[in-house]
Amino acid sequence: MPVVLLLALITVSEATIGVFVKLTGDVIPIQTLNFYALIFAAAFLALAIPQTTGRPLRFPRGNVKDTVIIGALIAAQISVFNYAMTLVPIANAVVFWSVAPFFVFIFSAIFLGEPAKKSYVLIFGVALVGVVLARPLGDGDWFGNLVALSTGAIYAAMVTYMRHEGREETGNDIFWSMATGALLLSPALVLAGPGEIDKFNAYPALGLSLPVMLWAACLGVVSTGFAYFGISLVLKRINANVYSLVDIIVSPIVAATLGYLVFGEIPARSMIFGGGILLFSGFWLTREMNRGKENAAVHACQSA
Predict the structure, then answer these.
(1) 232: which strand partners?
(2) How many other C-beta atoms are found inside a 10 Å radius of the C-beta of residue 288?
(3) Which residue, among 58, 296, 30, has the nearest Cα to 172 in the 3D structure?
(4) Which among 289, 290, 66, 42 has a CA at the least distance from the CA of 185?
(5) pLDDT given at position 151
(6) Helix-helix angle 100-111:118-134, to 10 degrees
(7) Cα dist. 84→91, 147, 212, 254 in Å?
(8) Distance of CA 47 to the CA centre of its chain
(9) Which tens digit of pLDDT belongs to each residue from 257-290?
(10) What residues contact 67, with CB distance under 8 A and at least 6 apart?
(11) What is the C-alpha to C-alpha distance for residues 255 and 142, in angstroms, rounded to an integer?
(12) What DSSP assignment string belongs to 2-29?
C-alpha cells in the first residue's frame, strides 16, 4: 500500500473516534464502551499482526513491566478522550487534545532533564494565547474542555515514558498493550453494566436500523486497532517527525469536519480562532523539538 494512502487512512481512522462514540449514544455506558473498544482493537490486532508479518504473536517476556504500564496509559488516554467526546463537540475535544506536545515539552524538561530552549518558551506563550481565545472555561462546555485537556497530558505521559525507556511500540507490543488495557477496563462490565448490546437504532436518513454494537466494533477496529497498527507500519516507511507534524494538524481538522457533516456541530467562533492558534503552535513546537533531535543526531555522528 502506498505510504501516502496509508497515512491518509490512519488520519481518517483517528478522526472517526468522536463519530462512533456519539453514534453509540447513551445506550452503552462510556466506561463499558471503552472496554469494548479495546477488546475489539485487541481482537483485530491478534488477526492483523500475524497476517501482515507472517509471524505469530510473541509474549514480550523481557518487556512485561513496560507493556503493562503502556497498556494502562493507553486505557486511561482512550477512556478520558472518549468521555470528553460525550461532553463536548468533537472539535472541542480534538483541539484541546492537541496540547499534548506542550505537555511532552514540560514532562521532558522535568523527568528527562531536557533543557527548554527559548523558542519552546516563545511557542508556549503563543499556545497560551490560543487557549485564552478558545475560552475553555467560558461556556457550558468547560468541564468537557478540561477533560479533553487532561487527555493531552495522559498521552504526553505515555510518550515521555516510552522515550525514557527507549521504547518504540512494534505491532507485537501494541497487541499486548491493548490486551492489558482491555483487562484493566473489564470491571466496567460489572460496575457500569454491559449496556443494551442487542439494541438497534433507527437512522431515517439511511432508511434502516443498525445495531449499536456496530459502532462499538468500529470504534475498536477502525478508530483504535487499525489506527495504532497503521502507525506502527507507517513509521517503518517515513520519518516519525513527518508523521507527527501531519497528525497534529490534519487529524483534528478532519475530526472537526466529520463532526459538522454527521452531527451538524459548528464550533464557536472563539474555538475556531483559539483552536487555530493552538494547532499552529502545536505544529510549530513539534517541528522545533524534532529539529533539535535531528541536530543532536548529526552532531553525534560527526563526533563519532
Answers:
(1) none
(2) 16
(3) 58
(4) 42
(5) 92
(6) 140
(7) 11, 6, 20, 17
(8) 22
(9) 999 998 899 888 888 888 888 888 887 877 777 6
(10) 60, 173, 176, 177, 180
(11) 20
(12) -HHHHHHHHHHHHHTHHHHHHHHTTSS-
| Terminal Cα-to-Cα distance of the chain (whole angstroms) | 37
Cell of 222: 477502525
Residue 251 bridge partners (DSSP): none
What residue spans of the chain are helical by DSSP H? 3-15, 17-24, 30-53, 64-87, 90-97, 100-111, 118-134, 142-164, 171-185, 188-191, 212-218, 227-234, 240-263, 269-303
Which grid cell is 282?
502545536
SS3 203: strand
The neighbour count for residue 31, using CB atoms within 10 Å, is 18
**59-107 per-position pLDDT tens digit:** 888 788 888 999 999 999 999 999 999 999 999 999 888 888 888 878 8
pLDDT digits (tens, 9 = 90+) for 222-263: 999 999 888 888 777 766 666 676 777 788 889 999 999 988
Residue 55 CB burial class (10 angstroms; 0-12, 13-18, ≥19) = exposed
* Cell matching residue 4: 501516502
Looking at this protein, which amino acid is placed at residue 30?
A: I
To the nearest whole percent, how much of the chain has pLDDT over 70? Answer: 89
Rounded alpha-carbon distances, angstroms, from residue 295 to 118, 192, 270, 278, 299: 16, 50, 37, 26, 6
